[in-house]
Design a protein that fits this description.
Number of strands of chain B: 0
Radius of gyration of chain B: 16 Å
Helix content of chain B: over 70%
Order of helices and strands of chain B: HHH
Shape of chain A: globular
Oligomer: heterodimer
Largest sheet of chain B: none
Number of helices of chain B: 3
Strand content of chain A: under 5%
Number of helices of chain A: 11
Helix content of chain A: over 70%
Radius of gyration of chain A: 26 Å
Largest sheet of chain A: none
Structural class of chain B: mainly alpha
Shape of chain B: flat
Strand content of chain B: under 5%
Largest interface: A-B, 72 and 48 residues
């Protein structure tokens, strides 16, 4: 990933890297002129110097991206994502593992880039709400503004909001019923779930849907208690996974949550209800 | 009680602990935030927001995708 970014990938290099890449022609290439090129012919001196400068630039840019990504590894979320990617991969779910790996590495690079740029806050930035979830918020705000200017009755706005919610509910129900009709682990089930999951993550990357004021600081003890419950759940699941005969063979004696839910998810109704709950949870999260 | 029962009981205990915490948060004055507030807090920075959303996406993929 860093290699791609270094070779002119979609991600623009950080400003520090840009300054680093611009240095060689002024300062970095000068020593190279004084040093005779090893094995180079006198006539090809300019070309060799150009190649050398380009190589130095590429190496510096590449190492800069690596350093950026490594700096992002200090973010605990990145480490958690990479750990989940590893365990998912070895338990025979390469697509899940790939998703976690890609997101984890992207987040590492993004976090490292922000830190190197002077620790720009990554919270509810003004720029964050310019797109992604924020775009919906801006549309909402624009709509509210227009409604105020036009002095439209509040009831009409409320009706419109209800219609939008109903449309989302109908779409969600259709999605759950349709995708639930496909058997698990088939491509027709994989594609819509993967596309929706990726779309939500990408939209979330751009910013929160609502630009609310920063929430008040939560009590550390209460937060820690929720953390204990979450970690205990993960460790219990992990211990069951490790006590299976193999990573890809279920165990009756030590069932994972997947094993326990297999009978429910073996039916169309069960799959549809599960998908509806998954969509509801997704909406709940996106709406935070 | 065999190991299957113990394993299932473990999951139920953890689930019950979450429900108790939510009840304490919403029905008492204990210094415990509700799950909704915890998620709002978690969505407050990009790293945490992406972590939560990718965990949600992972659940869907884990149960349905190849």
């Amino acid at each position: 990933m860093t290699g791609k970014a270094g070779s002119g990938g979609p991600c623009p290099p950080p400003s520090q890297d840009q300054s680093a890449t611009k240095q060689p022609p002024a300062g970095g290439a000068a020593p190279a002129i004084g040093e005779p090129p090893a094995g180079g012919s006198p006539g090809s001196g300019d070309a060799d110097i150009g190649d050398g400068a380009a190589t130095v630039t590429a190496v510096r840019a590449g190492s800069g991206h690596v350093v950026t990504a490594l700096a992002g590894l200090r973010e605990p979320i990145v480490l958690i994502l990479l750990l989940i990617a590893f365990f998912t991969w070895i338990s025979g779910k390469p697509l899940d593992g790939l998703l976690m790996l890609v997101v984890g590495m992207s987040l590492a690079w993004d976090t490292g880039r922000r830190r190197r740029q002077g620790g720009a806050p990554e919270g509810r930035l003004a720029g964050d709400s310019a797109s992604g979830f924020g775009a919906a918020n801006q549309d909402e705000a624009r709509g509210v503004g227009q409604a105020t200017r036009l002095d439209a009755p509040e009831a009409a706005a409320r009706w419109r909001r209800r219609l939008v919610v109903l449309a989302w509910l109908a779409g969600g129900a259709l999605y759950a019923a349709l995708v639930g009709s496909f058997s698990r682990y088939s491509w027709p089930a994989t594609v819509p779930v993967a596309v929706l999951g990726a779309a939500v993550v990408v939209a979330g990357w751009r910013g929160p849907r609502h630009s609310r004021p920063a929430p008040a600081k939560l009590p550390a003890t209460g937060l820690a208690l929720w953390g204990v419950v979450l970690v205990a759940g993960c460790l219990w699941e992990l211990s069951s996974l490790f006590q299976q005969p193999t990573m890809t063979t279920d165990s009756y004696a030590h069932p994972t949550i997947s094993t326990l839910t297999d009978p429910v998810l073996g039916t169309w109704a069960g799959r549809s209800i599960f998908l509806a709950a998954w969509l509801g949870l997704g909406w709940f999260l996106v709406d935070r | 009680m065999n190991s299957h029962d113990v394993t299932v009981l473990g999951y139920l205990v953890i689930l019950a602990a979450g429900i108790v915490l939510q009840l304490l948060a919403t029905r008492t004055r204990a210094p415990i935030p509700s799950l909704g507030k915890v998620f709002s807090w978690a969505m407050g920075t990009r790293a945490r927001r992406i972590g939560v959303l990718v965990a949600w996406a992972w659940v869907g993929l884990h149960f349905f995708a190849r």
